[in-house]
Amino acid sequence: MSKDGMNTKDFLIGTFVGGIIGAAAALFLAPKSGKELRDDLGNQAVVLKDKTGKLTSEARERGSEYVSIAKEKTSSISQLVADQSSQIMDKVKDLRSKGAEKANELKEEASSAIEEQAEEAKNEIEDEARETADTAQK
């Protein structure tokens, strides 16, 4: 039953499939009159035109939706970037002014320290000069 059974089974399947294909080909290739064929072609063309029109309008609608969504997102992103840029610029200005204030404070502290040191040095020199003059007179 191994070889004979398989061959019979394959033959029956092939016959069945061939019959279906032959019936379908006969239906599609059956002769029609010229007017019937033109009517069928015209009907198919109208159906194809309608489907194309629907697909085109759907594509335009979706395209318009996508464009509006893109514009909204672009606008919101632009606004966000502008806000963040403004915040960063404010922080930079604040830091710069704080830095300038600190530099002025340090400059004033350094100036007064230098003046104090200069005054102390002057006093020490004057004291040394007096002591030297006093020892020279004695």
Automatic annotation (TrEMBL):
The chain crosses the membrane at residues 12-30. Keywords: Membrane, Transmembrane, Transmembrane helix. The keyword Membrane applies. It comes from the Bacteria. Residues 94-110, 119-138 have a biased composition (Basic and acidic residues). The keyword Acetylation does not apply. Residues 94-138 are annotated as: Disordered. This is General stress protein. It comes from Bacillus haynesii.
